[in-house]
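Sample 3 of the quickstart, ligand magnesium ion:
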Amino acid sequence: MTRVETGAPPAAAPASAAALLRERARWSLFDLLFWAAALAAFFVFPLRLPLLTEIAILGLFALSIDLLLGYAGIVSLGHAAFFGAGAYAAGILAQHGWGEPISGLAAAGLVAAALGFATSFLVLRGSDLTRLMVTLGVAMMVLEAANKAAWLTGGADGLNGVVMDPVFGVFEFDLFGHTAYWYALAVLFLCFLAIRRIVNAPFGLVLRGIQGNALRMSAVGAPVNRHLVAVYTLAAGFAGIAGGLLAQTTQFVSLDVLNFQRSAEGLLVLIIGGSGVLYGGLVGAVAFKLMQEWLSNITTQYWQFWLGAALVLLVLFARGGLLGLARRFLRRRPARSERGGAA
Amino acid sequence: MTPILATDRLSRSFGGLRAVNEVTFSLAPGARQALIGPNGAGKTTFVNILTGVIAPSFGSIRLAGEDITRLSRHQRVRRGMVRTFQVNQLFPDLTPLESVLLAIFERDGKAANLRRPAWREEAAAEEAAAILARLKLADVMDLPTAEIAYGKRRQLEIAVALACRPKLLLLDEPAAGVPDGERQDIMAAIAALPRDVAVLLIEHDMDLVFRFAERIAVLVGGTLLVEDVPERVAADPRVREAYLGESLDGRAA
Ligand SMILES: Nc1ncnc2c1ncn2[C@@H]1O[C@H](COP(=O)(O)OP(=O)(O)OP(=O)(O)O)[C@@H](O)[C@H]1O
Ligand SMILES: [Mg+2]
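Result:
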């Protein structure tokens, strides 16, 4: 029985526990390639910058859903409420003469986070199904409120007269979308860094623990509800930043930012890319928008049909989305890595 | 001395069934006690009430003198009452290392940290590795829990609970379904717990019970039948009756 205290356990010798954890949090070649490609896109597709900006915004939106769904396991069909809240916050500020983009974006994030915090208490209890219904219901209420408050939001006509100051007082938002793209990309990258940090911190373990087994979480002393409120608020905040980006880069906000389609699209994009892996939302956004572009070019009328078909195939046959597929493909090729050897 | 755990007429009914019926029970700090009883006696329900997983219909619970009947689950854990589950309740996608680390972070109040990379918490990681090594999990600590063998997962149940640094540990059939060799490992790990940790062991294997327990409580049909030293419990005719001829003299039932 005292055997345990003598010599170190042989199997643990090669790597310390901290080193094992660190290994999982390392930057990889993929990170470098992804962001290099995002930068290169600016030069390679100078005429498609508005599309690329849309992709960045959609990617950030999906990333915020990933924090919620992919990490904490909270399903939502109403995440557009926060995207929209952020969009209106940034838009209305700019319309009223506060055109400074960075503080506007911060305001967008804060307003959305506040709305997220206020409604988080509704998603604490209940099953996935009740959560779907509650988030859907909240988003519907927010949409209708925005519609009714036409004096503030412009209602069905949309929010016009959004005028943005130059970024850092220097870079004007130009017609070609140069500034818009790198601004959106920079914001996306910073938000990505923040979320990456969060999921690599102890709180990231907490989120995966809640998804894995909320009962056990409470049995290790975790205040599960408090954690859920925190992640819901955070995810709402990041969605709000995405919405703010859309308002600022298009200088227009319509009720579309709040509709069900938007929530569904964010979810779709995340599932296509792969949830719970940070890049899922980003890769999904690229794939989704490109597929949409490509399909609507070759078949202007039926592209949604093919998009739907692709989605069904992906979900049925490629669990873990595109990134899951890629990982399995890469793993099969080289000889089994050191992890396989342990079993 | 204040008992670490004291229940007063603790009860819970499911419909007409009195799963736990007026159980008044106490446990001294550092106790080594077993809770036995036939299938369906209400042992797991008792633990579920103690830990706040289900609410009692009646009665109260004191932990080290403090009334915790209305506290939430995590508050009870924070006060030192920790349990394991009869049916594994683990984190399938986390590795054992991450699972134990998570418990340590919650215990130390570091779990809400959004900024500091988890791997920077080297002391916590080393502590987690040490706990895992103690339960012979060092070689699988970096595999997803869903991929490790059932016996190892049983060990992990205990490792996660130990990481919470309990004052009172409630073990619900920790060795259930575990092959003989590993069963000894589990019992060795339990026997090696610090003496100031009170342990309540629920177990059907009488061999293990009589080797481990300094006192034994017998629950039958939701009611506490006896609570005494092992020799007297084994000799008690009511207990023998409840077990319908099963041998209680140290051979497995
Ligand atoms: N959530 C529940 N709803 C209804 N009945 C329940 C519930 N939980 C337990 N019971 C019933 O309460 C009784 C006690 O069950 P419990 O699981 O506590 O027994 P146990 O002593 O742990 O048995 P075992 O040794 O088989 O684990 C059983 O009759 C069971 O069917
Ligand atoms: Mg039981």
